[in-house]
Design a protein that fits this description.
The protein is α+β, with helices and mostly antiparallel strands and about 425 residues long. The chain has 15 helices and 19 strands.
C-alpha cells in the first residue's frame, strides 16, 4: 500500500514524487516510457522554473549536462522588436536554458528514485481501482505483458494532455480555447545564434534557441488551415517561413546550419483547463492544464504546480487536513496563479495581436524600462497582471514618449 501513486514520470510527475518521497511518504511512479526517451517539447525553461530546480538541488546537475545558456533574447511581433533580457536576476537565476528532454526527464526520474520513490518504467495503466467512491489504485501492464495492481491513498495523473487518468475519472474540460496553429521543428548543428522569436504579418512565426550539444532547436509555426499544404514538402515550407520573415537568417540557416534529426510536428490540442481534483485523485501538468507552446511555459508550470500539489498532498497525508480538500486547494491555486499566462498565451499564439496589445508592445519596445519589464514578465519575474496594470502602462508610455491620448487608450483598454 502506497501513500501516493503518480502516473507519468516526466516534468510534473517525477518532481511530485521526489518531493513527497523526501518528506517520508511511500510513493510509486509509473510511466509507459523508459528513460532516457524523447518527447515533443519546446524544451524552454523560464527562470522561475529553473529556480524550482535550484531549490530542489537539481540545477547544477542539469547545467553539468551542457545546455547552452541564453542571456539575450530577440523577440519580434509583427514589426515590433524587443531585444534584451530581464535586468535583474529572477530567483537568483541570470540565464535561461532549453535542455533536451532526453536529458531533463531522465534527470528528474533519477532524482525521484534517489529520494526514495519506487519507479516502474514501461508500465501502461489500463484502469483505476475504486473503493467506496474513491480512486484507490491503478491496474496496468508491464513491459513483459503481466497485469499488476497497485493501491494507494491517493492517485495523481501526470500523464500529459491525453491523460488516461483524466479520462478514467471523466474529468471535464472547461475554459477551452481552440488551438490556432501547428509547429514543425528540428535540431541543427553549425548555428551561432541567440534566442530568436520572430512573428510576421502573414500569420507565421519562426523561433530558434540553443539546447544541448551545441545544437539549436529551430522551429516554425503557422495557422492550422495551412497544415496540409505545409506537409506536402516540409523542408521547402520550413525554409520558406525564414525566407519570408528574415531572408538574412534564412540564408544563414541554409549556408551554416546542418539538420541532424527529422522534422517533428506539434499539432497541439485546444488550450484548456480540466477539472483536476476529485475523491482520491488529482491531475497535474498538461493532464489538467494545457496551453499553446508559443510562450514555452509548459515545463516551468509543470515544475511549479507539481510543488504546489506536493505541499497540499503532504498536508493531507500528514493528517493536517482532509486530503481531498487539500487537492481542491491545489486546483484553486493553480487556476488563479496560471490565469494570466493562459490568457496571454492564447492571445499571442493567434499570430495576430489585437490593437491594444500591439500598442503596449510598441511602447515597451521604445524604452529601457519597457524592454526590461517585458523580459522580466517573459522570465516569470513580473506577473502579467502587474505588467498590464494601468499605472504601469502609463509609466511605460511616458518612458516611450508616447502622446497622452494613446497612453490613456492603452491604460483604459480592457
Amino acid at each position: 500500500m502506497y501513500d501516493a501513486i503518480v502516473v507519468g514520470a516526466r516534468c510534473a510527475g517525477s518532481p511530485l514524487a521526489m518531493l513527497l518521497a523526501r518528506r517520508g511518504h511511500r510513493v510509486l511512479v509509473v510511466d509507459r516510457s523508459t528513460f532516457p526517451s524523447d518527447t515533443v517539447s519546446t524544451h524552454y525553461i523560464q527562470q522561475v522554473g529553473l529556480g524550482r530546480l535550484k531549490a530542489w538541488g537539481l540545477l547544477d546537475r542539469l547545467l553539468a549536462t551542457g545546455p547552452t545558456p541564453i542571456r539575450n533574447m530577440n523577440f519580434s511581433y509583427q514589426g515590433i522588436t524587443l531585444r534584451g533580457f530581464a535586468a535583474e536576476p529572477i530567483d537568483d537565476i541570470t540565464a535561461t536554458y532549453a535542455p533536451r528532454r532526453t536529458v531533463l526527464d531522465a534527470l528528474l526520474v533519477d532524482a525521484a528514485r534517489e529520494a526514495g520513490a519506487e519507479v516502474i518504467e514501461g508500465f501502461t495503466v489500463t484502469d483505476l481501482v475504486w473503493q467506496d467512491g474513491r480512486v484507490a489504485g491503478i491496474r496496468g501492464n508491464s513491459e513483459d505483458g503481466g497485469e499488476q495492481e497497485f493501491r494507494a491513498a491517493f492517485v495523481v495523473g501526470a500523464d500529459g494532455r491525453n491523460s488516461k487518468v483524466g479520462d478514467l475519472v471523466e474529468a471535464e474540460y472547461h475554459r477551452v480555447v481552440p488551438a490556432s496553429c501547428f509547429v514543425y521543428y528540428s535540431y541543427y548543428d553549425g548555428l551561432d545564434w541567440e534566442f530568436h522569436h520572430w512573428t510576421g504579418s502573414d500569420e507565421q512565426q519562426f523561433g530558434a534557441w540553443p539546447t544541448n550539444d551545441n545544437q539549436h532547436l529551430v522551429t516554425v509555426m503557422r495557422r492550422r488551415d495551412r497544415f496540409s499544404e505545409f506537409r506536402t514538402d516540409v523542408e521547402a515550407s520550413f525554409h520558406q517561413v525564414f525566407d519570408q520573415l528574415r531572408p538574412d537568417i534564412g540564408e544563414q540557416l541554409r549556408d551554416s546550419g546542418s539538420r541532424v534529426e527529422r522534422f517533428r510536428p506539434m499539432r497541439y490540442p485546444d488550450n484548456y483547463y480540466r477539472r483536476s481534483a476529485g475523491p482520491g485523485w488529482a491531475l497535474v501538468g498538461d493532464a489538467g492544464y494545457h496551453k499553446d507552446p508559443f510562450t514555452g511555459w509548459g515545463i516551468s508550470d509543470a515544475l511549479k504546480y507539481a510543488e504546489v500539489l506536493a505541499d497540499k498532498l503532504h498536508a493531507g497525508l500528514a493528517g493536517e487536513q482532509p486530503i481531498d480538500d487539500a487537492a481542491r486547494e491545489y486546483e484553486k491555486l493553480r487556476d488563479e496563479q496560471s490565469n494570466d499566462t493562459f490568457e496571454f498565451t492564447c492571445m499571442i499564439s493567434e499570430l495576430q495581436a489585437p490593437p491594444y496589445y500591439r500598442s503596449v508592445f510598441q511602447a515597451a519596445s521604445e524604452s529601457e524600462l519597457g524592454n526590461s519589464q517585458f523580459f522580466s514578465m517573459i522570465g516569470g519575474g513580473m506577473h502579467g497582471a502587474a505588467f498590464f496594470a494601468r499605472d504601469n502602462l502609463n509609466a511605460l508610455y511616458r518612458a516611450a514618449g508616447t502622446p497622452a491620448d494613446q497612453r490613456l487608450f492603452a491604460a483604459d483598454a480592457s
